[in-house]
Amino acid sequence: MTAHQAPKEARTPLSEFPVSDKCLGETPRFDDAPAWIYNHDNPYLHGVYAPTTRELNQDKLEVIGELPTDLRGTYYRNGANPVFEPKNRYHPFDGDGMVHALHVSDDGARYVNRWIETPAYTDEGAAGESVSPGVMGPFDYSVSEFGIKDTSNTDIFCLNGDLVSLWYNAGNPIALDPMTLETRKAFHLDGRNKPKMSAHSKVDWRTGELLYFDYNDTPPYMTYGVANAKGEVVHEVPIDLPGARLPHDIGFTKNFTVLHDLPFFHDLDVLKNHKLRVLTFHRDIPTRFGLIPRFGESNTVRWFDCEPCYILHVSNCWEDDDWVIMDGCRSVNPMPRAYGDEGELSHMLAYMRLEANNYRWRFNLVTGEVREGDIDDLNTEFNKTNPLYGGQKSRYAYHQYIPTHDEGGYTLRFTGLVKYDNETGESGRYDYGVGVLGSEAVYAPKVGATSESEEDDGYVVNFVHDTKDWSSWFCVFDAKDIEQGPIAKVRLPGRVPAGFHATWVPQSR
């Protein structure tokens, strides 16, 4: 079902064009975007991706429909929003972190957005220009311990009164005020001697514990730990890996954490000699998933070999007798073909196409057997489930549909919301509409819901961005029936650029 019909005079946004079309003349001149973006023919600086220069705080927002009385809490979404013109080629991972929040309370809806004041953000603000290299290099360790800018622009979670922003490359997390989004300080777990944390460290809503990991280019190549709900480390161990890796996510059950050793990684010699991180998918190396008891020691990890693949995001994991089940999105082609007509950005655009589909892995704790296979072959990712069911058997997952290259989807664009029944493989889909693109959608439990409540008796919420008039909206879907479209929409007071990951924090938390 389609939300909107495009008017005939609607302009095609720049993000719809290949870079080689040299279509800067088609770019709308936003009054809230920095002027320097028009010097660059890079789709991730234009259209729905164009950064904003505004920080807003506005309540009593217009609502179309009616916000449910049992929906109370905040939708947070992180993303890239560069302040200064990049010194080298721009990659969408390079933008300074900016968090957008939509608070839903008895007083209605309130929107807030703010930059995350990372050390790099502060340093560049003082310099008045970009001084940090980006993902496409060259890496410069005199500027940053990571060789590139730690932007804290990727994911977000809430723990012990702090909203915490994370970076995809295992960076230094930042603590924010959950209501105002003001930067408080660098986030640090009590009892830990280093701050680094991966983008997808997980909060277990059942226990309140934070399950975290980081990774490095030197041994130990991975560290895994658990902190309690007060932010105190209660367990941490090094994880033995064959070499430097770039894992992105972890999964967890009630008793185990699932670690990832993936055959898509960089060559340290190339990084050292050429100051570039060049990723290669090693099709002759199996993907390994390591099951470690939640409070297990390093030597208790049990590795399971699977078909070579890359996995960005886990939906959920649980135990079923002798089996551990993991649902997520699998890519067997994490570095898709680069097209020559896309110019010097062709390899970046290929990587950002993101070819992936809904998949299930099963690991037998007694026999060591692995069973794996597709749930569906549709190109979807940014998959989320009901967080009250985290670590226990769940059925439903909510994904973003990503058009393939053959469908004109050469960039990371979300054109529809897909609800999966992972038991049957059946799905329902809501297309946002012509020229409308979405953000990651998250499950928002009803007020008072528990892990005993019906799994999909709640809401799914996200932002959408209409490229026909550049308006942005907060959408509320009935989780049982997303195909009917939003049951309520909130008009946001400003244009919200597309971004990365999101979370829902109930008012009670």
TrEMBL record:
Short name of one Pfam family: RPE65
Q: Does the keyword Metal-binding apply?
A: yes
Alphabetized, the UniProt keywords read: Dioxygenase, Iron, Metal-binding, Oxidoreductase
Which InterPro entries does the record cross-reference, listed alphabetically? Carotenoid_Oase
Q: GO MF terms on file?
A: dioxygenase activity
Q: What are the names of the required cofactors?
A: Fe(2+)
Query: Is Metal-binding given among the entry's keywords?
Result: yes
The entry sums up its family as follows: Belongs to the carotenoid oxygenase family.
What's the protein name?
Dioxygenase
